[in-house]
Amino acid sequence: MKPKGLLVAVVLLAVLGGAVWYSNKKQAEKEKAPAADASPKIVSIPDDQVADIRIQRPGGETVELKREGAAKYVLTQPKPLPADIDAASSLITTVASISADKTIDEKATDLSAYGLVNPSLDVRITRKDGKAVDLLVGDDTPNNSGTYAKLAGDPHVYTIASFVKSSLDKKADDLRDKHLLSFDNDKLTRVELTAKGDTVEFGKNGQNEWQIVKPHPMRADSGQVDTLIGKLKDAKMDAAKTDATAKPEEIAGKFAAATPVATASITTASGTQSIEVRKDADNNYYAKSSAVEGVYKTTTDVGEALNKNPEDFRNKKLFEFGFSDPSKVDIKTAFFTKAGDDWVSGTGKKMDNATVQTLIDKLRDLAASKFAAAGGGQPVFEASVISNQGKRNEKVTISRNQDQYFAQREGDPSIYQLDASAVDDLEKAARDLKEAPPAKKK
Rounded to two decimals, what is the model's pTM? Predict the structure, then answer.
């Protein structure tokens, strides 16, 4: 090829290469650039930087929510109230990132056309650094597909989705903590319940287990006590059943006219809180708490959980070792101790684990059908169980009086009446105990 032709070819190749590079560059820029109709971002603040939210309505209440910690919020307006952490977190998530559906007017001069002269909502979001933005929310669009909105001091007018407006339109009742009592379960020292004409009081024993201390010391069913405490912890104002138009004095009047169901109190080192629940003729439950001002409707399950008497909380199980493995079982005629994974008899013989386990299961499940005022009769079965690394030692004696069976725990004055079938199963499990088969020779 001639030098002149070679030079032309080189120039053409360079031009072609440059054109390809420029085309690729413009395509990459186009891909990176937001689409012309992309939703404009109106507010963008990291969630953890939102310190304060104030919601104003013309002629209505002003609501102000403040952050007081990583997971603690309070209402300062219309009056000081603790805030519900879930409701507060949801509102913060909404205000921290608000996108418009589209831009309606880039330089709006007549805001009245959008209902933004006197906006229906004025939401001021303040950051931790003190900087703030004001979001003004106006009228709904003619087809009700969205709502007009703008930032104060910015001429742009946007539309936002209707669900965004709903998420911002919160009143104090939407954001306040609706719990009727406020306490830490682990710090409870006393729980008292008065219902059905009786009062029962619960306290902790040396093993941190709930026991009945009044009307007199008795074993408590920890599961039932925990259920009661759980209902007290979760007791809330029932907004779904409360008439929003009812005045506080009207609800207080209904409470006063209703029939008392129960009164409960909880005590921690910080003091005592109480709640009184009543029920009207229409099966509505009302609650009045020392921790919250006012009277409120509450849920049926709270009323029913409190409508109990002391018998409902008594422990009907004869043994308390639960699902922990005992270290020794003594049935008077023989005893067995745990040696590693095996059970060994008092004579040193290895027992069949399955038959010992069956006996343990029957002892574990042994429960009264009811409590009796008196027992008596001849002893027919006796069992002792050592568990909890030797810290728990329980002994139960079963007696028969004609065709009825009664049991008593050592050191416990309560008399437990048993079903005959439960005693039969226990005696059979004791009879079926056997030694382990000899190990097979290798």
Answer: 0.75
Contact 418, 347 (CB under 8 A): no
CB 343 within 8 A of CB 393: no
168: CATH: 2.60.40
- Please indicate, yes or no, if residue 382 is contained in any of the structural domains: yes
CA atoms of 152 and 130, how far apart (whole Å): 16
- For residue 295, the one-letter residue type is V
Q: How confident is the model at residue 108 (pLDDT cuts 50, 70, 90)?
A: confident
HSE-up of residue 182 (Cα within 13 Å, Cβ side)? 11
Termini Cα distance of the chain? 94
Determine which of 9-13, 17-21, 351-355 has the lowest per-residue pLDDT on average.
Answer: 9-13
* Residue 399 domain-assigned (yes or no): yes
**DSSP structural state of residue 313:** G
pLDDT (0 to 100) of residue 207 = 80
Whether 91 and 164 have beta carbons less than 8 Å apart is answered as: no
d(CA 43, CA 96): 6
**Which among 253, 273, 257 is positioned nearest to 265, based on CA atoms?**
273
Q: Do β-strands 157-161 and 102-105 pair in parallel, antiparallel, or remain unpaired?
A: antiparallel
Domain span at 165? 41-175
Instruction: Give φ, ψ of 21 to 5 degrees.
Output: -60, -45
- If residue 10 lies in a helix (H) or strand (E), which one and from where to where? helix 3-32
DSSP tag of 336: E
Domain match, 170 and 208 both: no
Q: Rounded CA gap, 83 and 88, in Å?
A: 7
Residues with Cβ within 8 Å of residue 297, at least 6 apart in sequence? 237, 238, 241, 242, 251, 284, 285, 286, 287
Asked if 266 and 246 touch (Cβ cutoff 8 Å), the reply is no
- The span from the CA of 231 to the CA of 210, in Å, is 16
pLDDT in tens, 235-274: 999 865 555 556 788 888 999 999 999 999 999 999 999 9
Q: If you ran DSSP here, which 8-state letter would residue 402 be given?
A: T
Type of residue numbered 271? G
Q: Count how many Cα atoms sit within 13 Å of the Cα of residue 96 in the half-sphere of its side chain.
A: 16
Of the candidates 144, 145, 149, 169, the residue with the CA atom closest to the CA atom of residue 159: 149
Residues 400 and 281 in one domain: no
